[in-house]
Amino acid sequence: MKKKGSVVQLDRISDFGSEGWGFESSLGHLLLLFFFLITRLDAQTILSETKLPISVYETSGLEIINGNLVTINDSGNPSNLYYLSQDGELLFRRIFNDLKNNDWEDLTADEEFIYIADTGNNFDTRENLRIIKIPIDSENNYFEIINFHYPEQVKFITLEKSSQYDAEGLITIGENLIIFTKNKLKKITEIYTLPKIAGTYEAKKIGSLNIQSIITGADYDSKTKLLALTGSLSFKGDKYYIFKIKDFDPKKTINNHIDMYEIPIGKSQVESIKIIDKNNFWVTSEAETFGSPYLFKISL
Fold this sequence. Notes:
Layout lengths: L2 E11 L20 E8 L3 E7 L7 E7 L2 E6 L6 E5 L5 E6 L8 E6 L3 E6 L11 E6 L8 E6 L17 E7 L2 E6 L7 E7 L3 E4 L1 E6 L4 E8 L4 E7 L7 E6 L10 E7 L7 E6 L4 E6 L8 E6 L1
Parallel strand pairs: 2-20, 11-15
Antiparallel strand pairs: 1-2, 3-23, 4-5, 5-6, 6-7, 8-9, 9-10, 10-11, 12-13, 13-14, 14-16, 17-18, 18-19, 19-20, 21-22, 22-23
């Protein structure tokens, strides 16, 4: 793999602290410290580029269910899940008339359920943050709500470019959901955990990643322990990147580094990523003015 430069930056993730993940049975009072070396790489290839239906013009979040891609639109759009073939054909919409799309930003899934992150919070004003839990069975539209708030938040309004409690990344690990915030003020992502059980909770902060970027999407592969994030280095979002973190496991004290790749698709807005394997990824881009949304298969 050819480097585009040497090490860009040496950063430290903050302590995960004695509170750990909140998995008292498995972590107890472990003190976990993570050091990340960020390396910018230049070895990415666009394997395919597919125009998507305009109905997913604000595609935000991506999953694979039974071999099909599933995406959502973000704030103010219909409360639908859109099922697509890997060729970009719209197969069907899964419509939830009894749900409001306040600001859907990501989705993740385990063997039984899909979890929708209604966590967009551009101005830090929302007091109704939630994860929507629905069955994988597309003919069963029963849903449950996991309501939450950030206990550290005391101010509920700010400038968009200074918001700290927006979030566009959601993954599942074991019995927990993991949220990656979009802290535009500090250009870090803070990591919070929630249970998968319906109820009302304080999100538990387990750490923060000083990635010097604004995170817009997340995915995790439990088999390879690969974490993949998308994000932009600036609030304007002129360029987007994929960040790969290998062997991501907050239960172990290990040193890791981040491989950072520019997504070579020009000016666009990328808010989703899905891991195919350790080298290949799906990402979608929103429709720019008078444009179309796209699905990209990228090899790193």
